[in-house]
Amino acid sequence: MDANDSLRVHSFESFGTVDGPGIRYVIFLQGCHLRCKYCQNRDTWEENTGNIIPISEVVQTILKYQSYIKPSGGGVTVSGGEPLLQTRALISLFKELKKYDINTAIDTSGMFSLTDEVKELIDLTDLFLLDIKHIVPAKSKELVGFSNELEIEFAKYLSDIGKPMWIRQVLVPGYTDSEEDLLKLKDFLSTLKTVQKVEILPYHDLGKFKWENLGLKYPLFDTRTATQEDFERAKNILRNLMYRYNLEILCILCYNRFQPIVGFKPFFIYRNWLF
Fold this sequence. Notes:
Elements: E1 6-16, E2 24-29, E3 51-54, H1 55-63, H2 66-69, E4 75-79, H3 87-98, E5 103-108, H4 116-124, E6 127-131, H5 137-144, H6 149-160, E7 165-171, H7 179-189, E8 195-202, H8 208-213, H9 228-245, E9 248-253, E10 270-273
Parallel strand pairs: 2-4, 4-5, 5-6, 6-7, 7-8, 8-9
Antiparallel strand pairs: 1-2, 1-3, 9-10
Helix pairs in contact: 1-3, 3-4, 7-9
């Protein structure tokens, strides 16, 4: 595969409603270097599988959906897996999309060094959905296999250059939900100038079957799912971010990643607005 003219793709979604503003065409890329214990898409980790698709073909497919993507204020979001593993190809893709004035977004962990290539891709991206894995370095390494210094620097860089971002964190009972850690997260977010929205993603185990299908033990088999009480508690801790920075803070539960479940095909089931 030429890293410039093809993407290694896991799947597509043509009517995404939770991965950026408006209606989004969402591209899920294959390959991820993180090892998140709560990962709901375990089948995206391997970097040498997936479908190799020419960027020209991807662009032509996207253009078929312009009639409802653009009027909705939407665009294209690249998720994964980890999109920045295919930085060079995304530069090529986004350059093509800019010719058609299509909004671009990337859902990423930000756990990459800020190379010239990465910075070029950042310049071509309209919005980042930045997944803060854990605000505490040691706990981040335990939870996802990497400490968090790179993603913290990534967030600071986006802020410094004026790049809009939505912050996401999975609320995992016993891992990311302590008051001390949420206060640290709040303090860090308050230093960033371009955060437009904070999304709390309640942990669930609907992706456990993907681990089992691969013959793997699900790491959080004994961890309970997040509850409404957990949502409210996190909301109260983060509340003053909304008032101080006029942020929209949401609690989102989205099942659209699990369409392989027989008889289950909704693209969006439940959104709980915190404020």
